[in-house]
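Bug #77: duplicate submission created two jobs. Keeping one. Sequence:
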Amino acid sequence: MWGRRGRWAGPGGAEELRARRREREAALRRARRQEQLVSKRLLREDSAAAEGGRDGAETVPDPLSEDEVLELLRGMQRGSEDRKRSLSRLRRALQNKDTQQKFVRLDGSIRTLVGLFTSSLADVQMEAARCLHELSHSSDPAVAEACLPATSYLLTYLSGHSVEFTELCLYTLGNLVVESEAVRKQLLPQGIIPVLASCIQSPHEAVLEGLGYVLSQLLQAKEAPAEIVPLVLDSVLPQHMLRLVCSGLKAGTGAAVEFAWCLHYIVCSHTADAALLSLGALPALATLLLDLASETPPDAPEGLELLICPVLRCLSNLLAGDTGCQGQIRDERLLVALFLILQSFLQQHPFIVQEGLWLLNNLTADEPFFCSALLALDLLPALLQLLPCSPMAAALVLTVLCNIAEKGPALCQQLHQALPLLLPALALPDPQAVGQGLELLHLLFLHCPEVAADFIRQGGQRALEQHQSSPELQERARALLDLAGQPAGASTTGPCHGTVSAFP
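Kept job's structure:
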């Protein structure tokens, strides 16, 4: 029996250009729903429009020779006009990986670039910041580590007044921490967490979204549970993250999505459940889920599924802890909301089904209230309709049914109606789903022997016999055939009462 599941583990510009960046970020978030992964962001709104890309396509420039890179570096050290022109050409050239490596290997290159980044001339400073941003997007850790001299300035400038510049600094920092542990180890004593805690009260959505990006990258680092999460928990960040996630429908989903993933990564650290629960995270996220259910298609805001996914994971993983917190959200409306979301997103975003079923599994694993409520609200037919969605969905549906059956004979009697659908489930190609189907039958037979007789009458013996040649399933199939062959009432548990023995 599975029981409770484990844990899942740009600057401003034209609207069309910002929209393209939003699309890229949405794609990154869609990828991230499948697994915890780091992903870099690139703010390059002006490149296609300002440099001849009529259709918005971005082309990587050809690599520069070492002499050409050296000439650009010399131009950056001359008068203001040459400097700005050289910085602009360098920014474009640094989109090429080979040019990035040639630049950082040049003696004095980063020192010169950081010097211009600290310039009192706003246009020079911005262009230098864009060059650093291009370097931060490199997949070469050596390039990221070459940018170490800039980190203290990037942090300092987060307190500036320009939203565009602050956003650029945030995404540059976020990209740098992805690639290099050395960068992360330098940023922590430099005070990145207190700086981010100060920024999180910004009124600007773009700044908040960039901040969420930086924090999400930090929280995915391998050293995060021991070195980063405790610093975050000791700051004001968690309470503000929770506030921003729960206000996402009103204030914009971009920042809410980022901070929802941050909360998910914190929960997955296995060190923060008590702290988040003390902030009221569980009832707050449950209330948010009710609100999200009211925004389901066709009127749902674009990208709503990207927020729903981490919210479901946060709730599910908080419930997976041994904290006895289920009583904080003992509200049958949560089940109704969950099924509304599952049905609304099933066709266009089927990944939501798996996320929702994990939550449903954790709600029903040790909580009789939700097991009884699911049946009382007549949600069993809607649950059974999810069986064909995917092998994982089938296994999870059957696991939820096992959770219900575990609660005793009264609920098993109500599950009797699901028996006709169990026969096709036993023919599924996925051994995990079939195993859960056998587990459910075992519980039903033990609690209510008349179910066994009905199962045999419906052709269940043939369905079980087909698994006798399977090394994974044959022992359990044989045990069920033996159990089904007992006269009604002959079970050691008696008719519809008693405890459930361990399944072989």
